Amino acid sequence: MGINNQTVYFNDSRWNGRLDVPPVVVSAGIKWHGHNGDERYFLPNLWCLHMYRYDSELILDTGVYQIHYGKISIIPPNIPIHFRYEHLCEHLYVHFALETATAIQYPIVFPVMMALGTDFDGLYNDMAEVAGNAVVSSYRLRSRFWDLLCRLTNRFCEQYSADDARLHPIVRRAQELIERRISTAINVTNLAEEVDVSPGYLVKLFRNGCGMTVVEYIRRRRLEYAVHLIGNTTMSIKAIAVATGMPDLHHFNKVVHRGFGLSPREMRRHAYASASFEEPSPMFWTDTHASEHPE
């Protein structure tokens, strides 16, 4: 089965996680894949990291990502994973769990897909030395992998900050409108009209500047705002669902759990139970019921 050259590929998407305590490595090793062309996986409660030395495709709910030599991917739990192979391929994998008891206190940005360039071979060899080696202690593996994750996220955050500084003015204007209307239904076509571009061009600008579509960006901001309200206010969960533009409580609970691995009530309990709760860093508009409602 050949790679589809008409596929729209995503440069990157991002997950939130926690790295103030070391991850728990459940399994790690180097394996061959592609015996049957396509392979599908689903890992409940476990994150996975892959280091690639081949060309292929990774298909997630968030989009289709090109795999090339020198790339890594990080995928959170409970996400259907689909690999599309043209031939037998070997990659290094790590399945791991992150501490979630107070995950919203320490928001770390993980890339879905990232190219490591000339650093790849050294990092790959470092992990290959301990992954799947029965002689290596679990403590050494956990320490080596924790260091790798920290280095990857630091590098990605530096790149992320630099990308934000170069955002197109139209993207910045659209982001301002999204923030003002985060509690309402936001129509991409109407949003594009307000910033004087076509919907297709606005989506292209967001993909180039943010690594995601307009709809994905809106969903991400709603979730970030929900985390802020859950951990820093006494608003009811229903009120928070409404304030973040997801008034269907069942849908809101499902989206939050899928994004963070915890229900809104679990997140609030953990936040209140911790004496060291920190204010999340992203900017949030205080007027969540803005008067400018889109049609």
Strand order of the largest sheet: 2-9-4-7-11
Terminal-residue CA separation: 44 Å
Mean pLDDT: 77
Tell me the number of strands: 11
Detailed description of the structure:
With 295 residues, the protein is of the alpha+beta class. The protein folds into two domains: 151 residues, Regulatory protein AraC (Jelly Rolls); 105 residues, Orthogonal Bundle (Arc Repressor Mutant, subunit A). Helices cover 40% and strands 20% of the residues. The chain contains nine helices and eleven strands. The chain has a five-stranded antiparallel sheet, covered by helices on one side. Strands 3-8-5-6 form a four-stranded antiparallel sheet, with no helix packed on it. Strands 1-10 form a two-stranded antiparallel sheet. Helix 6 crosses helix 9. It is globular, with a radius of gyration of 20 Å.
How do the strands and helices of this protein lay out in sequence?
Blueprint: E1 14-17, E2 24-33, E3 38-41, E4 47-52, E5 56-60, E6 63-67, E7 71-75, E8 81-84, E9 89-97, E10 108-111, E11 113-115, H1 120-130, H2 138-165, H3 169-180, H4 188-194, H5 199-210, H6 214-232, H7 237-243, H8 249-260, H9 264-273
Antiparallel strand pairs: 1-10, 2-9, 3-8, 4-7, 4-9, 5-6, 5-8, 7-11
